[in-house]
Amino acid sequence: MTQERARVIKIHDRDNVAIVANAGGLPSGARLPDGTVLLEAVPPSHKVALADLPAGAEVIRYGQVIGKAARPIPRGSWVDESLVLLPEPPALDDLPLDTGHAPALPPLPGYSFDGYRNADGTVGTKNLLGILTSVQCVAGVVNVLARRIREELLPRYPNVDDIVAVNHSYGCGVAINAPGAAVPIRTLQNLARHPNFGGEAMIVGLGCEKLEADRLVPQDERHACAGCGGCGGEGPPVLLLQDEAFRGFGDMMAALMRMAGERLERLNRRRREPCPASDLVAGVQCGGSDAFSGVTANPAVGYAADLIVRAGGTVMFSEVTEVRDAIHLLLPRTADIWVGRALLKEMAWYDRYLAAGGADRSANPAPGNKRGGLANVVEKALGSIAKSGSGPIVDVIGPGERVQKSGLVFAATPASDFVCGTLQLAAGMNLQLFTTGRGTPYGLQMAPVLKVSSSQALSERWSDLVDVDASRIAGGGATIEEVGWEIFRLVLDVASGRKRAAADRLGLYNDLVLFNPGPVT
Amino acid sequence: MTQERARVIKIHDRDNVAIVANAGGLPSGARLPDGTVLLEAVPPSHKVALADLPAGAEVIRYGQVIGKAARPIPRGSWVDESLVLLPEPPALDDLPLDTGHAPALPPLPGYSFDGYRNADGTVGTKNLLGILTSVQCVAGVVNVLARRIREELLPRYPNVDDIVAVNHSYGCGVAINAPGAAVPIRTLQNLARHPNFGGEAMIVGLGCEKLEADRLVPQDERHACAGCGGCGGEGPPVLLLQDEAFRGFGDMMAALMRMAGERLERLNRRRREPCPASDLVAGVQCGGSDAFSGVTANPAVGYAADLIVRAGGTVMFSEVTEVRDAIHLLLPRTADIWVGRALLKEMAWYDRYLAAGGADRSANPAPGNKRGGLANVVEKALGSIAKSGSGPIVDVIGPGERVQKSGLVFAATPASDFVCGTLQLAAGMNLQLFTTGRGTPYGLQMAPVLKVSSSQALSERWSDLVDVDASRIAGGGATIEEVGWEIFRLVLDVASGRKRAAADRLGLYNDLVLFNPGPVT
To answer: What are the angstrom distances between the C-alpha of A20 and each of A42, A282, A474, B243?
Structure first.
């Protein structure tokens, strides 16, 4: 039992619950600053009732209804998830298209980072050889290739950071003409164009797959390369293992190594140059959230998101199921009715997708979220959207599409960390901000990921695995603004290669996972 | 243009089409043995009309209708896929449950192999340390772990073949209570029990994921291990990265390495011993099929399947969409009406699954199949089921379930090579026979895969990538029986570790892919 002063976090004046901020939780009998006496022990980041709530009363956090009391809840009780009944989600049809209420943020000029400028205007934050695949059939060969390149070629090209083999389970054995197939296909097309690949990604296909490999390159480059080397490496970037020129495995590997070598040669000549912060394309995401996430890490990342947007950059927020219940708060922030309609359309698509699979949004949150004090997806959503900051939403893109506009963009994706990460990469993300409360060693090889910890316990335990400790906000050790600026400055340092994210330091990289709403065959 | 004698393969007396067997195809004007003169050039393994077919006439191969003529097709024409209209699939409701027509095969005693016998009665063909994961969040850590084990520990345990990290995209960000969720969950549970892991698989979880890690171990072992080592390695095989005992990444890795070391110690003591061929659990599969597949590689594998069944072993065939159109030929081979009903149930489930995703079986075949001469899924299915040999179907298991009976079993899976391979492994497969016509470098790390080539062109080009050349059957250089026996003997040698499969020799391994019919969230 802790002897320290009882601390709770109440966010909005209307709130009738607050969360326990003491890292060890609070014992029964503890007295809160407002005079409430705990009727039972409450774990850290879990909710306590600040008033007597009759059965059916609205449970209010963030000034919003997160559910109704399942039975009478006396003041001082632990408001456990079982006591909060999930409300109906806002009906999409009834929402007024009353958009344009978020004023533009004031400009923030003068910030820059050192990036790799590409011919298409995008800017890379890493210098990577990308090896895309049109089908999983080639993964075994590509994995052997990646090991050989790393051992035999990479040491000769010191300006190239690494190679990335984008293996995936799509490409064949799938319904390539099903309504959902456009999503994984455009995701692969856009991953091949990722700014950190510098226009030099190579594509390895088999030859008989449904997703024909040359669909991954722009139309005017579509003819396959036999790896003969006759073009001096200026030819199209596609190699098919079934090419009749190859007599066995040795031939394939020789051609692949030649193709990689030519690309490494050119990548090695890339140099960082000063780029305005407006060239940042940041994704924000959360994973393993707890009830602190919505008051520490997410608002701090939201503040940093505002700074990036003010500097002219692009920030994507995502995770449809985690914003669905806060749609009534987001719609007024869309820039105009076209953006508003696009946002509603993505929500409606996902509602139907889940229903077709016999699921709904109650499939979220995860057990760990609940142990972290999040009663349901409404409470999770209210905390989740804090990552988007306060600016107007200027655009909405579908899963796997590429960002077109600067400013705050909603990039519709599932909430699954790796699926969301993959889709944000396809959208052109060159750096990700990732908040976590329970803790995840998440990392992406294609772009730096900065992990922001929401809770004191995690920040202490995982000091080498997280990049920023936002839990100080709950303890009063730092303000949201201060941590937001710290994140923003770290973003510029990491995008410049001056500092490394924890995941890059430790080499912790998750696999990319394509979102395929269609069936496998 | 080839000067060699024109050769075609006609399978059944009723057939009104045959496929060109000459490796270079046949030119216009070539005269077939039956007197048919080609009206146009026909590529190898493509079909030629042996009679004038009026519009709407039945096109017959394998003695079965593979479609109807889209327009009048004169004798000697190339019967290209566009000329064959896809027929309706056999309606499942109308099929008579007239089962039990395949007589039991004669026993074949006296064959054995040297395997690793496990406490649960299963037999391993490799000696592997399995590292299962409950969620993709841990993949980055597990990949670093796998590299460290391979470099630091494995050299000390020469009797252990390798380590296998079973990463996957399931476990969180999914609808864990959706109707389809049972499939990926039982798949992971059964992969953990795979015979080649010798009962020593370790499970790495995060801690807050929806698929709680201890669900991957049998009920009586379900309490998580903090990796303290206090139990001397006899404790439960689950380690959670979020365990509060870990102060950062170094602690996690130390505990994981300790856990792995204890298991490697025990695995290293395993020894091969003579086991009857009845301990074989073989899967058969095809990938990148052509029109030769159904007359060379698939029948040869079918003959070998019969030999394994006659020796008392188990053979699984799979790939629902590729047998769906031959259901009327399979149903009479089911042992009794219970097996027949189970077979129909799996077909009906898949029909519904595809329809829900806006697809149907016409999503198969792939473009490469078509270039290989397969007009549609009916023709593909008729060739595909040849892999199952001629014995009675004694059981049907659902995706991810474990085989229970010896003999020929239908293991319902999608046709996607990696999804099917993963599900056959979960079923307990200790060796796979894989036929290919177009060529794929497919391999599985968990069990040996023997690749059987259907065409002469592929066998010549990929001599180091395929294990058995079945194309000799088309050229008259070997009979189906001879190649079948060759495969059977090779199975016993490879299962014994005396010979290595091409994929193992070259280190070509595809990733496992879970079948998740449910939505992601």
So the answer is: 7, 32, 10, 22
Same domain, B295 and B425: yes
Query: And the tokens for B467?
Result: 């294990």
- pTM value is 0.92
Scanning A95-154 for CB atoms below 8 A from B yields: 136-141, 143-144
Residues A73 and A122 in one domain: no
- Tell me which chain B residues have a C-beta less than 8 angstroms from the C-beta of A139: 509-511
Q: How far is A63 from chain B (nearest CA, A)?
A: 26
DSSP strand pairing (B64-69 vs B84-85): antiparallel
- Rounded CA separation B168/A480 (Å): 36
- Asked if the Cβ–Cβ distance from B169 to A515 is below 8 Å, we say no
pLDDT, tens digit, 9 for 90 and up, residues A445-498: 999 999 999 999 899 999 999 999 999 998 889 999 999 999 999 999 999 999
Q: Check CB contact of A172 with chain B, cutoff 8 Å.
A: yes
Q: Say if B100 falls within a structural domain.
A: no
| Domain shared by B124 and B168, yes or no | yes
CB contact under 8 A, A513 and B136: yes
Same domain (yes/no): A242, A369: no
B89 touching chain A per CB within 8 A: no
A78 touches A53 (CB < 8 A):
no
Residues spanned by the domain of A19 = 1-88
Specify whether A248 is located in the same domain as A375: no
Domain count, chain B: 3
Q: Do A441 and B241 touch (CB under 8 A)?
A: yes
pLDDT digits (tens, 9 = 90+) for A63-118: 889 999 999 999 999 999 999 998 888 899 889 999 999 999 999 999 999 999 99
CA distance A448 to chain B (A): 14
Indicate if the pLDDT at residue A306 is higher than 90. yes
What ipTM does the predicted assembly reach?
A: 0.91
**Does the beta-carbon distance from A366 to B507 stay under 8 Å?**
no
The region, left, alpha or beta by phi > 0 then psi within -120 to 50, assigned to residue A110 is: left
What is the pLDDT, as a whole number, of residue A227?
55
